[in-house]
Write a structure and sequence with these properties.
Strand content: 15-25%
CATH topology of the largest domain: de novo design (two linked rop proteins)
Order of helices and strands: EEEEEHHHHHHHHH
Largest sheet: 5 strands, mixed, barrel
Shape: globular
Strand order of the largest sheet: 1-2-3-5-4
Length: 216
């Protein structure tokens, strides 16, 4: 059976020079892994973190690892790929999704929310340094947790005033909330603690260190 689907790239594992196992978020199957062929070094650009793709899926009744073919990008994401800060942010965001969402799990509306978030980051031209913090708050909501400022308070502690804005209804105000690099990093770690608590899992995000260095 062959069908067309959209995918959001979370992570991949190389299998030699021409094949990868792609870990992706899909509308119909939630998080799922696929086998994909790669055409040379340039072909890997299709599988950058949080790229939104469209592909044909060839189901294999003898294996859970289905084959992708005719893979194309749904959106160019020029606003992200041409910006070092946004690119680094997508590393962080994709790793959070990869570590948080279990293989085979499916949350209604998660794919659509994630795609909207990616396109929003792509479109913002300035004042996006807090975007990953807002992303963590909205991710908690997309996963079914109550991510109100009151629920976040035990985790954010001294940053109550800042989180009131970041988790509040005004997106523009959240982006404009002034924060130092240290404060931004500490709030990110606190929000990850919130996700760890509710998912009852260890979410070790290596790319947070890279983001911390870039925004300090």
């Amino acid at each position: 059976m062959i069908q067309t689907t959209s995918l959001i790239v979370l992570h991949y594992t190389k299998l030699g020079e021409t094949r990868i196992v792609l870990h992706a978020l899909t509308p119909d199957w939630g998080r799922r892994s696929f086998l994909a062929s790669v055409k040379g070094g340039a072909g890997m650009s299709l599988f950058l973190p949080l790229n939104v793709l469209e592909a044909e899926v060839v189901e294999n009744p003898k294996s859970d690892l289905w084959q992708l073919r005719s893979v194309t990008a749904r959106h160019p994401l020029n606003g992200i790929r041409g910006n070092l800060y946004k690119n680094t942010m997508t590393l962080f965001m994709s790793e959070v999704l990869y570590r948080t969402i279990r293989d085979g799990s499916r949350e209604e509306g998660l794919f659509d929310w994630c795609e909207r978030s990616i396109l929003t980051l792509d479109a913002i031209e300035t004042d996006f340094s807090n975007f990953h913090l807002r992303f963590l708050v909205e991710l908690a909501g997309a996963l079914g947790f109550q991510a109100s400022p009151e629920d976040l308070l035990p985790f954010v502690g001294v940053y109550k005033r800042e989180i009131d804005v970041i988790a509040g209804p005004d997106f523009a105000a959240a982006m404009l909330q002034p924060l130092s690099g240290v404060s931004r990093s500490e709030i990110a770690e606190s929000l990850l603690d919130y996700l760890r608590f509710h998912t009852e899992s260890s979410i070790n995000i290596q790319s947070l260190k890279v983001l911390r260095e870039l925004y300090r």
